[in-house]
Design brief:
16 helices; globular; 2 strands; about 290 residues; about 55% helix; mainly alpha
Length: about 290
């Protein structure tokens, strides 16, 4: 979408208005319990930090979540972009910095950055479709579809190496959403579309559809950074602890889970984003956050 200067016919304000109303409703509905109030504050803080280059400049650090480093006020680097540069430049240093960042953050918090820090996760929480009341967790087809993000992650290095290009960045829908579209809106005359423009914008449209109509759809199926961090849920210091002696088998936790995990028994699932909705939904405090030594 390139600005034509015809403000009266522009759909962007209407999209923001519709999204804003939905977000306001979601905040009033979902962010009312103690943990969710803290999570909302955390998400706003990280949204600001993520886009605060006008204060901090470009820091040289790596986001521990998915966000484009070409966004107008991005403060850090995209993990996937760093991976691509490491392959293209055969840089062991970049590979070690990326691996160290993901390892340290994920070893402590698991995939909590997805639930507490990631702006794309925050966007999904605000405008995504309300979750169906489902006690059964994910279906077998859904479970298998979750492996798509791992396949994407595994494919990026060899494709980058073979093509000699930033293959994923060229068509990245999150880059399109957070960088390409904002730049087009802010400075339409200063943007020169490449051969990848149409594929990227097409993927942006499909991603927006997924975000709106499937609760946490990007996190579930397509996010390669989530695929990096998810396996650490099994061993991270921060865990969701389950006391079965207190459990009523009401499965309010499973109903509340935006990732459709088989709670409370699969509390170390690689799909868990540590959002704490299950904890807030439990009437007997059978679930709680805790570090492994507690």
């Amino acid at each position: 979408m390139i600005c034509s200067g015809n403000c009266a016919s522009c759909p962007v304000p209407l999209l923001f208005l519709a999204g804003g109303k939905r977000a306001k409703s979601r905040i009033k509905k979902e962010y009312t319990k103690p943990i969710q109030k803290k999570r909302l504050a955390s998400q706003f803080i990280f949204l600001f930090i993520t886009n605060a280059a006008f204060i901090f400049g470009v820091t040289g650090l790596i986001y521990p979540y998915f966000y484009c480093w070409e966004a107008p006020q991005a403060t850090m680097s995209c993990p996937i972009g760093i991976m691509e540069h490491a392959v293209l430049e055969t840089s062991i240093a970049l590979a070690l910095i990326l691996t160290g960042t993901i390892f340290i953050v994920s070893s402590i918090f698991g995939r909590a950055a997805c639930g507490w820090a990631c702006p794309i996760g925050f966007l999904q929480d605000l405008i995504g479709k309300d979750k169906k009341k489902n006690k059964k967790g994910m279906s077998e087809r859904d479970r298998k579809a979750r492996y798509i993000k791992y396949a994407i992650l595994a494919a990026i290095p060899p494709v980058v190496y073979i093509t000699g290009t930033m293959a994923y960045t060229n068509i990245c829908p999150i880059g399109g959403l957070t960088a390409t579209i904002p730049i087009l809106l802010l400075s339409p005359g200063g943007y020169t579309p490449t051969a990848f423009f149409i594929p990227k914008i097409t993927l942006v449209a499909l991603t927006i559809f997924l975000i709106v109509f499937v609760r946490r759809g990007w996190c579930k199926y397509l996010c390669p950074v989530g695929a990096m961090m998810g396996p650490f849920n099994k061993v991270s210091l921060l865990q969701i602890k389950f006391d079965e002696s207190k459990c009523l088998k009401c499965y309010n936790c499973a109903i509340a889970c935006p990732m459709d995990i088989n709670m409370p028994y699969d509390n170390k699932s690689a799909e868990c984003i540590r959002c704490g909705l299950c904890i807030d939904a439990c009437p007997t405090d059978a679930l709680k956050f805790g570090f492994t030594w507690q």
